[in-house]
Design brief:
Helix content: 10-25%
Distance between the termini: 89 Å
Number of domains: 1
CATH architecture: Sandwich
Order of helices and strands: HEEEEEEEE
CATH topology: Immunoglobulin-like
């Protein structure tokens, strides 16, 4: 009898648990730095991370695809309807050519792994 009551209780609460969830949205998934001179120290952009769900959300980590790019993120919990940020810096020095870099943003949502990208055309400096 206790098992049946427990099963009924779990079945009643399961929809409530599943209904509330954080949902991440990135209004912009690609940032184009455009033409960047090879002697520039760095260029930086910000990706908004919006919680369009109905539970608190957090960014758990960011990882970049190469050493010429660094990413950091706001550590605060993101309430439903609010936003956080991922800051991406690209270092073009001595890196002539077209660059497309991937940033993996891990959140407490489903799916956990989200992808944003930056791109740039690094051109040689004009010599005087």
């Amino acid at each position: 009898m206790l098992r049946k009551l427990l099963l009924i209780y779990v079945c009643m609460l399961l929809p409530l648990y599943m209904a509330a969830q954080a949902i991440v949205q990135f209004p912009k998934k690609v940032h184009d730095f455009g033409i960047v001179p090879e002697n520039a120290d760095s260029v930086t952009c910000v990706f908004d991370v919006v919680n369009v769900g109905d539970s608190p959300m957090s960014v758990e980590g960011v990882y970049v695809s190469c050493g010429c790019t660094v990413a950091t993120y706001s550590k605060e919990v993101i309430a439903p309807g609010e936003k956080g940020a991922v800051f991406v810096t690209f270092f073009p020095r001595n890196r002539e050519g077209l660059y497309l870099k991937t940033i993996y943003v891990y959140t407490n949502t489903n799916p956990r792994k989200n992808i944003v990208r930056v791109k740039a055309m690094v051109v040689p400096c004009k010599e005087n």
